[in-house]
Amino acid sequence: YQHSFDLSGHGALATGVDLTFATERQLSVDFIPNTLAPSYTVWNANVAYTTSGGALEATAFVRNIGDEAVYTGALQNSWLPGFVGVNVGAPRTYGLQLRVEF
Fold this sequence. Notes:
Blueprint: E1 2-6, E2 12-22, E3 25-26, E4 36-37, E5 40-50, E6 56-63, E7 71-76, E8 84-88, E9 93-100
Antiparallel strand pairs: 1-2, 2-5, 3-4, 5-6, 6-9, 7-8
């Protein structure tokens, strides 16, 4: 969801929030219990200010607000049966983005 607020000639303020949801799922083609990942919900949010001419935009953002561990893939070790390595998505991240047109 995103909503923009006009600041009466002083620019605009836009706020946004989004989420990603996934159910329990297998992370590899092996279909073994160790590659079954739990469900998750990841929330992201941002707020942006744009000047009236649009030449400057500053955006503050937070991704993965709840700091959820999101497993994105898995691979079973062929030398050690039952040992699985998994990939984990990014933890909570936040920052500021600045865009300038000239």
